[in-house]
Here is the input.
Amino acid sequence: MDMFTVVSAEYARNLSPVTLAFVGDAVYSLYVREALVLSTDYSTGTLQKLASARVSAHGQSGLLEKLLPLFTDEETDIYKRGRNAKKATRSKNASVAEYNRSTGFEAVLGYLYLTGRYERINELLGIEAGDNL
Here is the structure.
């Protein structure tokens, strides 16, 4: 398997929403880290603190407030599956509701990434960048 392998929407929909969130977590983390590195000249310690605040369940839950009304019906379905999925772990630093919402958000990103919808990821996450990431 190669990097950036694109799968069909049907294949991605058949993956566990927690699996989609696993991929989406990495997608969002890389997006935030890249945006910070390209827009600031902070030390790696400061970059880590800034990135952690944004990729936390609490930070993702806040961003989701802006994005949820923009989701397509398909994205909303994926979000709800991720939000409602039974998870093996719990967040130490976020409420259950924030953790569930962030899992839904990450599932959407994972789905979009695996199906090759990179422009849609940029469109959605560009809203955060517009707020000066």
